[in-house]
């Protein structure tokens, strides 16, 4: 088990190095720099700005100095927000994004999981078709459409929930979490339905039924654990996706998360912020994939046995 | 199967929705009672250092936290006393003596002295500072030489503290708008001990502007700053004119998404929005007692023409293109009447200046000009590319103009949209044939628009170069004795410019805000500037329906 974890972590190092190198050179290859603006900047000012940020060094020197700072955990100063370090911007934005992602995941699991399980219990009936069609709509409906619709209905016409903000007005976290979670809910529904269908036709389920267990106990005690393995395997990438993909929802609801900083950084050519956020998110994705692999192994007796042998 | 679908749903889902409902009073209602203005500010401020920041959201905050020698009256835009109680201008217009208000204090209680300004301007002009607005102080003798590193000794720059409360400046040439510049953040004083405590004076990365460190001299002081969430200022009791300040505080929100901002306004989370989505304009126009406020703004939207490149190297082609833009139709349809057609670079009524109008919408004349240039009815037209930065509004305008040119002149114009920084690069390198451009004035004076087109000017970007024009702007206008004489020179210069047509003016900007009726003292003005000293809130309940 530990060997597996250690091996996967070691594997992550070259992956991250490639991510950093490619990002570093790609952002610098993009036309326009962090200091280009609509009003012309005189050469002296531009030179002074570049000197303050170390852009007067050769590209390779900048690269090596970035790497050496990175090993100390220093992601450098932001170009867009003078006086703020990238570490600080990430520290300000990430907890919000993580909280939003967590709630969204809860929404996805509760709505999606329930819908998938319900659908799988009576395949090819209305009880199956209705939740699955809803799931299909959920997958197809982008958050930039769903968000404003939810705001119009619940925020403006019904006046039940706030239209924007994060932790300012009671209830302002509900709509963003539902908006972000619904796409994933749809995936979860489809995965859990497929997983459950497979499990429900297994011999041990027939055995459980033959023992005279009521159907709800058959589902909760025996079927769920096996049936939800595909969902668990999906959780890691899904959570990573929620963290790195919440930009649209953050913008619609004015949420001070990392996603907004990240995308704006690309538009602003905020080199250090783009790199910092990329490194940070890449690390998270690696970690979450690993965690979901471990969790899936723990739920699956066959895999668990394999680990034990190793 | 006894497991009911309904039962599981009932167990799991409602919990999420029941968590919290019922939001109580809106920000506007609470704010009106407490004297707190909720202000939609566009974006998260880059920073708060007056010598570093460049944008309008930053300006809205910095103007509350700091104050220059003079401020603008929001109704007339004429300068009125700020840190300086009064000022004398010498007969030749070359020396200005500012008399500082002895009551003016920093927010930590220190008095503000003339020496503070000398030190601050030295910092603002220091090349190592990388201040993008250093040029605001270029009217000072030797300021440009110091800012570009040709002069090392700041003592030779035209600013001196005669005594604790007297500041004297010497100018290169009479500069009628110089007092106005004292209201621009690049000329604001900064608190030397605070800055030096947190690092080198020219360091852009220090923490002196943080809530716990910052010392300002404005009507408000910084209370709270949460990244991408809100920035809060409260009334300062050390401000010399604090009796007149009626607001107890301002909350600035980074409202990047204009649709979200409009929704926040609709449910009473904001008193004031930075802008309004184009498609919402007709909706708000139709309302009685509409909160929608639309007013001329000192900015021009235009297309740059690269006059070195065929077919635009022929002035007749440039004129034909300019004449076939039906600006009235464009502004009334595509822009929902929110902007004003423009036929010149200087916005009309810039401090009393009316720019010349050399052409109008004239399809016949344009066809004739195009035929003379060798493209009768568009035959032999080599094609033309219009570059603009990705944005729905720019796209709509470009498509409308593309069709107008096709209909009127039978010529094809292709559209090329580019991401913002790529577009800036293309314009900077003059790597385009025709490109979208906007210019917003830094101060109210025709000079601020006309000096864009000096030979080799950094923002010229057209290849236009006319020594006679340069002489008028740089030599004749500053030496004019009266405003009439000066404006006559600008008129003649602008006529020369528009005859050569290196740009196609399209419309004059307007400011567009939603303002809650309880907000008083925010008159529309050409600079779209809010002077928070004048703002008050009527304690009137309710949200606009």
Short description:
Helices cover 76% and strands 0% of the residues of chain A.
- Named CATH topology of chain A: MetI-like fold
* Shape by Cα distribution of chain A: flat
Using a beta-carbon cutoff below 8 angstroms, give the protein chain pair with the largest interface and the number of residues from each chain. A-B, 71 and 69 residues
Q: What is the helix tally of chain A? A: 14
The stretches of 5 or more residues of chain A where confidence is low (pLDDT under 50) are none
SSE-based structural type of chain A: mainly alpha
Secondary-structure content class of chain B: alpha+beta
DSSP summary, beta strand count of chain A: 0
Taking strands numbered 1, 2, ... along the chain, how are they ordered across the largest sheet of chain B? Answer: 12-16-11-15-13-14
- CATH architecture classification of the largest domain in chain B: Roll
Query: Helical proportion of chain A?
Result: over 70%
Number of domains of chain B: 3
Overall CATH architecture of chain A: Orthogonal Bundle
CATH superfamily of the largest domain in chain B: Dipeptide-binding Protein, Domain 3
- Cα gyration radius of chain A (Å): 24 Å
Molecular shape of chain B: globular
Biggest sheet overview of chain B:
6 strands, mixed
CATH superfamily of chain A: MetI-like
Kindly provide the name of the CATH class of the largest domain in chain B: Alpha Beta
**Percent of residues of chain A in beta strands?**
under 5%
């Amino acid at each position: 088990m530990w060997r597996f974890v250690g091996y996967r972590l070691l594997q992550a190092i070259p992956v991250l190095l490639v991510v950093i190198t490619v990002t570093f050179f790609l952002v610098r290859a993009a036309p326009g720099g962090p200091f280009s603006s609509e009003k012309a900047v005189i050469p002296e000012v531009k030179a002074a700005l570049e000197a303050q940020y170390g852009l007067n060094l050769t590209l390779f020197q900048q690269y090596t100095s970035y790497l050496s700072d990175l090993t100390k955990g220093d992601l450098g100063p932001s170009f867009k927000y003078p006086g703020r370090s990238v570490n600080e911007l990430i520290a300000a934005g990430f907890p919000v994004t993580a909280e939003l992602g967590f709630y969204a995941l809860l929404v996805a699991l509760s709505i999606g999981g329930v819908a998938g399980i319900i659908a799988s219990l009576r395949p090819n009936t209305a009880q199956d078709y209705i939740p699955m069609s809803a799931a299909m709509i959920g997958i197809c409906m982008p958050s930039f459409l769903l968000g404003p619709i939810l705001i119009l209905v619940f925020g403006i016409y019904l006046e039940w929930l706030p239209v924007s903000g994060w932790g300012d007005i009671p209830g302002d976290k509900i709509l963003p979490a539902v908006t972000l979670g619904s796409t994933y809910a749809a995936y979860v529904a489809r995965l859990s339905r497929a997983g459950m269908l497979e499990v429900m036709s297994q011999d041990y389920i027939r055995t459980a039924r033959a023992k005279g267990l009521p159907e709800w106990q058959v589902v909760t005690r025996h079927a769920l654990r096996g049936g939800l393995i595909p969902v668990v395997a999906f959780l890691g990438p899904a959570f990573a996706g929620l963290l790195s993909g919440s930009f649209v929802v953050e913008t619609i609801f004015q949420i001070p998360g990392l996603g907004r900083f990240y995308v704006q950084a690309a538009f602003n050519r905020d080199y250090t912020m783009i790199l910092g956020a990329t490194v940070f998110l890449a690390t998270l994705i690696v970690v979450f994939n690993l965690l979901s692999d471990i969790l899936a192994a723990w739920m699956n007796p066959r895999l668990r046995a394999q680990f034990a042998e190793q | 199967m006894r497991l009911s679908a309904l039962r599981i749903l009932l167990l799991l889902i409602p919990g999420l929705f029941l968590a919290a409902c019922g939001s109580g009073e809106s920000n506007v209602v609470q704010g009106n009672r407490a004297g707190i203005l909720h202000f939609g500010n566009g974006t998260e401020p880059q920073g708060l250092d007056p010598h570093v920041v460049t944008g309008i959201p930053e300006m809205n905050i910095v103007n509350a936290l700091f104050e220059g020698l003079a401020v603008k009256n929001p109704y007339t835009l004429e300068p009125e006393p700020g840190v300086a109680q009064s000022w004398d201008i010498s007969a030749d217009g070359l020396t200005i003596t500012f008399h500082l208000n002895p009551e003016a204090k920093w927010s930590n209680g220190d008095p503000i002295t003339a020496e503070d300004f000398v030190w601050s301007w030295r910092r603002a002009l220091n090349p190592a500072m990388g201040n993008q607005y250093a040029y605001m102080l270029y009217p000072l003798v030797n300021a440009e030489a110091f800012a570009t590193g040709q002069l090392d000794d700041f003592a030779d720059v035209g600013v001196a503290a005669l005594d604790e409360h007297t500041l004297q400046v010497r100018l290169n040439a009479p500069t009628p708008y110089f007092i106005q510049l004292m209201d621009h953040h690049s000329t604001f004083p900064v608190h030397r001990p605070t800055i030096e405590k947190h690092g080198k004076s020219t360091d852009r990365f220090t923490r002196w502007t943080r809530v716990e460190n910052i010392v300002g001299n404005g009507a408000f002081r910084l209370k709270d700053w949460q990244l991408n969430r809100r920035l809060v200022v409260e009334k300062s009791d050390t401000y010399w004119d604090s009796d007149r300040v009626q607001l107890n505080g301002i909350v600035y929100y980074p409202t990047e998404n204009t649709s979200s901002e409009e929704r926040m306004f609709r449910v009473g989370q904001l008193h004031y929005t930075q802008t309004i989505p184009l498609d919402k304009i007709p909706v708000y126009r139709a309302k009685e007692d509409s909160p929608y406020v639309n007013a001329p703004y000192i900015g021009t939207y235009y297309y740059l023409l690269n006059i070195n490149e065929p077919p635009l190297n022929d002035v007749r082609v440039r004129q034909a293109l300019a004449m076939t833009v039906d600006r009235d139709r464009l502004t009334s349809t595509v822009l929902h009447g929110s902007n004003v057609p423009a036929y010149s670079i200087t916005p009309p009524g810039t401090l009393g200046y009316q720019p010349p109008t050399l052409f109008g919408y004239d399809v016949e004349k344009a066809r004739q000009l195009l035929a003379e240039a060798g493209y009768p009815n568009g035959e032999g037209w080599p094609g033309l590319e219009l570059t603009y930065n990705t944005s729905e509004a720019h796209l709509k305008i470009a498509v409308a103009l593309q069709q107008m040119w096709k209909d009127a002149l039978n010529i094809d114009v292709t559209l090329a949209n580019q991401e913002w920084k790529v577009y800036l690069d293309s314009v900077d390198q003059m790597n385009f044939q025709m490109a979208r451009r906007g210019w917003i004035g830094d101060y109210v004076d025709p000079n601020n628009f006309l000096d864009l087109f000096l030979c080799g000017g950094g923002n010229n970007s057209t290849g236009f170069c006319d020594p006679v024009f340069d002489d008028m702007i740089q030599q004749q206008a500053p030496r004019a004795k009266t405003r009439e004489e000066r404006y006559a020179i600008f008129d003649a210069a602008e006529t020369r410019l528009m005859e050569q047509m290196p740009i196609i003016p399209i419309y004059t900007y307007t400011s567009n805000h939603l303002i809650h009726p309880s907000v008083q003292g925010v008159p529309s003005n050409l600079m779209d500037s809010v002077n928070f000293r004048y703002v008050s809130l009527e304690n009137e309940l309710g949200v606009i329906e």
